[in-house]
Amino acid sequence: MLCLLPLILLHTVRKMDSKVISVEQMRRSDAYTIEHFVPGKELMYRAARGVYDSYHEWQGKKIAIYAGGGNNGGDGYALAGILKECGCDPVVIRVSDKMSDDGKYYCDIAMDKGVSVIPFDEDTDPGKYDIIVDCILGTGFTGEVRGTAAKAIESINRSPAFVISVDINSGMNGDTGEAVLAVYSDLTVSIGYIKKGLVTEAAKSYIGKLVNVDIGIVLV
Hints:
This protein is an alpha/beta fold. The protein has helices spanning 23-36, 40-53, 71-85, 101-112, 147-158, 201-204, and strands at residues 12-14, 20-21, 63-67, 91-94, 116-119, 131-135, 162-166, 185-191, 194-195, 207-214. Helix content is 32%, strand content 20%. Strand 3, helix 3 and strand 4 form a beta-alpha-beta unit. Helix 2 (40-53) packs across helix 3 and helix 3 runs parallel beside helix 4 (101-112).
C-alpha cells in the first residue's frame, strides 16, 4: 500500500553522512529553529514522518508505540496518527502520565483518528507485537532509568519484535552512548543530526542499524 501524506518540507533519510553533534548543540539548534523558522509541532510531525519513511514493512503488522512524557513521546503520538492514516492500526502504550504540549496535540489527533492509547503496566505483553517503536526517553536523559520507564524498557527488550528507537535508544546517554539500562534496537532513527553517543563503542551493542532524518534543523 502506497501512503501519500502531505509534506511541508522534503526530508531525507541518510545513513551516516550527517554531522555528529553534542546533545547541547542539538538542543540549541532545535530551539533556534523553532524560534526563528519552524514551529515545534511541525518539526515533530516531520520527525514522525521521517521515522515512518525509514522503515518499509509497517503494513499488516501489529505495532506498539511506547511513548514517554516528553517530546520523544510526542514523536510517537505523531507517528501513530501517520500510521493510522496509512491503513495500520497501532497501539500507543503510555509510559508516563505526563505529556508535553506538542505531545498532547498529537495524542489528541491520534485518538481522534481512532488510535488506542493504553497505560503501560507490568502485565503488558510485548510478545504479541511484530514492531515496537521506542519513544520513551530522548537525548536529554542522563543517569540511570528507574520506575515505570525502566520496566517498560525491560519489557521491550524481552520482546522478539522488530524494535525501532526514535532519535536515541531510551536510557542511553546521548553524548557518551553509555547506559545502565537501555533499549536494544534493530533500527535507530536519529532526528536532525546524529548525536555523539550514537556512534561510540559503548552504543554499538545497542543499535542494529542507524539512520538519520533531516527535518530542517538549522545548526547553531
